[in-house]
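Attaching the record inline, Q. Sequence:
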Amino acid sequence: MKDKLSWKSFLAPKYWGSWLLIGFLRLLATLPFKAGLLVGSAIGSLLLVLAAKRRKVTQVNVQLCFPERSKREQGILVRDIFRANGIGFVETAWAYWGNPKIFQGRLNYVGFELIQQALTQGRGLILLGGHFSSLDLGGRLYNMKGLSIDCIYRRHNNPLMEYMIRKQRQRFVTPIERKNFRQVMRSLKDNHCVWYAPDQDFGYAGAVFVPFFGQNAATIVATTKLVRLNQSPILMYSHRRNQDGSGYTLEITEVPNFPSGDETQDALIINQTIEREVRKAPEQYMWVHRRFKTQPDGKRKLYKQASN
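Structure, as predicted:
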């Protein structure tokens, strides 16, 4: 479907700050690979100092989810998380406007034969995702494998950013707003791959409380409903930057014993599957979000003064 809006719809002064951010991203997209990692890491180090509220959220998450680490080790992980998220800005820019040639010889695809095996059923495929710092780049690199993917996403509150993000994502995925279940159903019936990441806190509605990194996490049960829509198979898709900076590993793995017949057990399986992939490179997960803001009793305020 064609966008009714154009960039000319966003010339009012209230959008000028957003245009500056977009212009900055366009500049980042011109960076070669190694330089992009260095610049992104520097951006993350700067944000560690400037983004005090996000730093607080991240510190709380790390303390909750990695209690086995010493205070010093937790501090190092917080630093690395910000550096990885800074690199994530560059990776987003590369996904939207970058030259794909910079990734030549830098991509390792693991388990992708499982996708074709699943699609032989003719019922579409749910690709379980997570909010890794390389979120949009994961979609671009998946597409570079010669595969198509439909992406369920949450609409951005800023109309200009929503327009720009959707416009750029359409170059490598088919974006579907998360409330548009009719489109999701059509995609699955057409035997498409549909990417879905249920690993954020959307409150009490449609959620159950099951552990994620040992913490009570409000987890929506929509993944089970998606699988039931067309009796579709489900696989996990994770993507991470190699620790030596040599490139990326993009991995497809199975989601064991799903569906189980019980929505709460299904939610636990989903959290365990995502946690398994996060632990492969924990700094490359978006710990800057308040994953545990909703608690069963409604009273425990884990983040206190930390913002959303």
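The first strand starts at residue 107 and ends at 110. The CA atoms of residues 126 and 234 lie 5 Å apart.

More tomorrow.
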